[in-house]
Queue: 3 jobs
Job 1
Amino acid sequence: MKQDMIVILDLGSTVNTEVARKIREMGVYSEIHPHDISLEELKKLENVRGIVLNGGENRIVDGAAVEISPELYDCGCPMMAIDHPTAKCDRKLDALPEDAVLREFVFDTCQAQANWNMKNFIEDQVEQIRRQVGDRKVLLALSGGVDSSVVAAMLIRAIGKQLTCVHVNHGLMRKNESESVIEVFRDQLHANLVYVDGTERFLGKLEGISDPEEKRKIIGSEFIRVFEEEARKLEGIDFLGQGTIYPDIIESGTKTAKMVKSHHNVGGLPEDLQFELVEPLKQLFKDEVRACGIELGLPASMVYRQPFPGPGLGVRCLGAITRDRLEAVRESDAILREEFANAGLDKKVWQYFTVVPDFKSVGVKNNARCFEYMVIIRAINTIDAMSATIERIDWDVLQKITDRILEEVENVNRVCYDMSPKPPSTIEFE
């Protein structure tokens, strides 16, 4: 069943995702598109019931106000403008509308149906995957994280044995992460799983690279190369499955949106990609991905596990990656996760991790001066990963974590707690 859609056109707003989420929470699907979408492109979108022109503080570009193509006003869909004084619309608003006003536009003006839910979404995606793939085969990048796990479940439902999962250990995994992936997917779920140990290959490519964008793109590009090599060992692999989600696309930038950062599965893909992509979650926010996983029957322990970036610890070992700092990140992260579980915080805090910067500070160990690294702890709560607040951790818990890190992790003499929300910070440091 195809869901009705409300299209949000970005004319410089900073609250596009807020509007999109408000509409989705009403049970109606919504998507964000750039202001310069053409009428032809708009008509290719299915079941569009209405359009929101979303202006804002970024509406002026190079001294001129961005505008939609005049032909869109004749597309036949009702339009509402937020903070866009010159628009020719059914309704104009000066600020983000109250829920009642937005609801009136969506249901009364646009006559949209509240048919956006996970059951319908899964049915649509399964149908779309089968239509896209046919009798051919898909290679899935399986990190073991929430996104790729839900994609795996979706693809198994859609195409079954036509799916081959590949887990690449790039040497940037958390402690015992790869072992856990193998145990869950190969031994418990009986997936067709190929394991590749690419530790030396990835770390060699990353040696001396300090720019975070370059690191992400190297990791993303090398991932594709590994998959291409594995695909050549198999027969009939024409598609690459990925756990791309909506915030990845939004943050990586569009034709008009400012880029926050590129994601390895969006901005890091090589131009000569040999696969056609299968990305069934690219329309979902993070909380919707989890809801989708539950609807697909995945265990809650898997669906609500800690988020982990595609580049792994590579973006938590800040600057040029060195093996000693990488090990410090891995070991301190394991301590943090263990102590959060002991304190019951693993079920309360959305994401928590450690990072190690690429500089040292003076300290004292064994009655002698030392010059070693620091570990920074970050713990945040969020719904959709587009904004985040800081978790207030009990002092005794923080003290125990600090004591353990300083005692058990080599080359570390200082522990700090990050108090920065998103925005202005991002969830990850790089």
Note: The chain has three domains: 5-109, 118-303, 316-417.
Job 2
Amino acid sequence: MAATGSLYSQVMEKIKQKIITGEYPTNSKLPNEFELSKQFNVSRVTLRKAIAGLAEDGLIEKIHGVGTFVRKPRKVKRIISSASAESFSQTAAKAGFKANAKVIKIKKVETPENLKTTLKTKVALYVERVYAVEDEPVMLERNYFPLPRFTGLEKTDLSKSLYQILRRQYHIKELKSRDMVISVALASLSEARVLKKSVGFPLLLLQVCVEDENNNIVHAGKHYIISDRYEFHV
């Protein structure tokens, strides 16, 4: 992955946006090196680094003697380089996907025993959503939000970006991961039904705890992710 701010990473991002918006459609052939380097006003060395990075991310494929072609990426990739929390929608968009969220369940519940110390409340708002990419379920998230702080969250349109809602409606300036544990879990019956996989299918289990700029807990919970559609880069 390109270093943030480097010239070739900027070129990567510009080409990626053209792919995402459809200016460079899937399976189309990219302009040649001379045309691209002239278009982005960079040297061929810089352009080749950008092309190599995009190929590594699965967005393009170089075929020797034929050219470079746009490809449909298979996996959503998340780069873990800081404590900053990132929504699934953001992660998917960076990888060239458009993610859609569907609320499965939202209700006030007694805070689970294992989260009472963390959330510091006896009552929480439980939000269960599934994220799909290209109509294929990829992640099931089960989050608990401390009450009364997040009263009214259940009345918002949670098919939209949750973190944007939190920033706008609850005036949260920064979201960061206090702790994150990644492990492997086998899909239970309920998880298999939502993610449209067989019982026992291997899932990535992400245990999260997100806090704001004042170190107050925003939410904690578990995210179940289809292992062949998502990968972490540390």
Note: The chain has two domains: 7-70, 76-233.
Job 3
Amino acid sequence: MSTEKYIILRSREISSPTRGDMGTRGAGVNTFSRPPATIKLEEADLTKRERNDLRRDPRTRAIAMPMPLKLIAPVRRQATDTPPSPPLDTTATWGVKAVRAPESRFDGTGISVAVLDTGIDPHHPAFAGMALVQQNFTTEEPNDLNGHGTHCAGTIFGQDVNGTRIGIARNIERALIGKVLGEGGGTSATLAKAIQWALHEGAHVISMSVGIDFPGYVDWLVQQENMNVNPATSMALEEYRANVNLFTELARFVQAYSTFGQGAIIVAASGNESNRPKYEISVAPPAAGTGIIAVGALGESDKGLKIAEFSNNQADISAPGVDILSAEAGSDKLTSMDGTSMATPHAAGVAALWAQRQLEMTGRVESQSLMAQLIASGTYAALDPDSEEDDVGTGIVQAPLN
């Protein structure tokens, strides 16, 4: 009997989650009657009968076929010359200043952040002295061969480079670097495993600038399975929905962890598929999952900060994502990139500052309140007056000041 590979998320005991609503797509509040200490995530080759049996099992929280994972690639990359010698005063990038990180007394002390991306260049001076816990979920070498993950990590916690401040939470001492994408790509199963790894390693904030490749999966079904485009699209849509549910359930378990352990939140890029003003695309998974904070990208304009033309809508929060200067892999320099991938680490860095504040005030980080604080920090004050909530969410994310 033929089998197909599936991702299965289940608990060893039956739980009854109850869900609330904070009024925002990504800010669902989930409480569980029992802590999810015994959740199990696995891949298995299943027959049709086995798959149906698992779907009827009340312990099964989600079941989905792995879908191709792709980098939410920068819309633009631009090399830049790093100042040869430090200026008298450190100058922060416009994005770091826009989220008011230089005004905050918080610096990420005591907080762990996970970056699930293309890895990191651990030799870049932006990460000097940091404890980088690297986990390779690909078949290539563990360090960053693309540069995307290095750039994102630099925005979250990078140290100053030749007098330029690129990082928001510069005193994070331990960063979890999950390499989920290599040149051979990856799958949603890889990302799901990396989320579980980051949670078990004690991450307070999980940052992801990757997405599910829906068009690529349709093409694969047409070319490799010799299917007509119409049934291929319908099949891809079915698995798309199943994968959104998978990441929603994973986000629930991440939130519920704080009922008995350290809390964590997931921050993800909304995607770069829009082409404003011609058309707008809704937030892509995994950011589309309920309980995952979707981040839109902002750029500078004469009227104030404005949604980037490529940024998908239905974001929960927005952050700087155009002309973002950060660490360049394979060198000791900085480089500029555009994309919701660049906005996401700004939000993740600010989340780390809010997590530090919560840790200092209460002795622990609690997922639901951290998510609420981050989303509530958004403001329209610096935005173009024509900004719409569907595009920018609650506005540009802001660091806690005291």
Note: The longest strand covers residues 4-11.
